[in-house]
Design a protein that fits this description.
six-stranded mixed sheet; ECF_ABC_transporter_ATP-bd; Rossmann fold; nucleotide-binding; ATP binding; binds adenosine-5'-triphosphate; ATP-binding; four-stranded antiparallel sheet; ABC transporter ATP-binding protein; alpha/beta; 7 helices
Length: 228
């Protein structure tokens, strides 16, 4: 369960204070949660607070009772985060090494790591790229690798910040099917409404506030109404 209790976040740049999130209170227990809204409305700030990447300047965020500010390390073990820009999270030289990286320090044998890496390569159509330099993959392949590298560590909550911006039609559908099958809770930020059409709950952000919270179709209609 993810809980936001009267949470605000203000970015401070010199003397300028920018309120990116304003007094958000929510409990998120559903399996599939979508987050939509205009550019700059606070979506990334909101989801980055779920794993403590951004801390509240007021209020409190907890994941399964763990405070993202006080218990950041434990929260990050629980919450996998996939960034919009895959280059921000591809850390190792080759595709296979990048997949294996997150498994280090988890007490797995070398063989167990190999089995998991091979399964991920197969699942994401990257078998031919095992020893390929990760930096030379196409944009969409990098996005798939970034997603695979997060899922391989089996987090109990998965936060995806626009995971399909660089994907072609087939890979967007692949990611959509994959998300549908995941056992864990997923919080997904997107401008692609198709990705959230079957979700349990969709939040609409506007100017740092949640202005709608409900079923996907009604949420999209509310957002479209804001733009008109
Ligand atoms: N590191 C930062 N420092 C200062 N201001 C920031 C920072 N990150 C975001 N902001 C500002 O906070 C506000 C909310 O940004 P955020 O990235 O959360 O929006 P978003 O809804 O995810 O937008 P988009 O759809 O464009 O990705 C914006 O006005 C943005 O300029």
């Amino acid at each position: 369960m993810i809980v936001f209790d009267q949470v605000s976040h203000e970015f401070r740049l010199g003397t300028t204070h920018l309120a990116a999130l304003r007094d958000v209170s929510l409990s998120l227990s559903e399996q599939r949660i979508g987050v939509i809204g205009a550019n700059g409305s606070g979506k990334s700030t909101f989801v980055r607070m779920i794993n403590g990447l951004i801390k509240p300047t007021a209020g409190r965020v907890t994941v399964d009772g763990l405070d993202t500010d006080r218990d950041g390390k434990a929260v990050r073990r629980r919450v996998g985060f996939c960034f919009t820009d895959p280059d921000a999270q591809i850390l190792m030289p080759t595709v296979a090494e990048d997949l294996a990286f997150g498994l280090r320090g988890r007490g797995l044998s070398r063989d167990e790591v190999t089995v998991k890496v091979e399964a991920a390569l197969a699942a994401y159509d990257l078998l031919g790229y095992r020893d390929h330099p990760a930096s030379l993959l196409s944009g969409g392949q990098k996005q798939l690798l970034a997603l695979a590298s997060v899922l391989i560590i089996e987090p109990s909550v998965l936060v995806l910040d626009e995971p399909a911006t660089l994907l072609d039609l087939a890979n967007t559908q692949r990611v959509q099917r994959l998300i549908a099958q995941l056992p864990q809770q997923v919080v997904l930020v997107t401008h692609h409404f198709g990705l959230i059409e079957d979700f349990d709950r969709v939040l609409v952000f506007d100017a740092g506030r949640v202005v709608y919270d409900g079923a996907p179709q009604a949420a999209v209609a509310h957002y479209v109404g804001l733009v008109r």
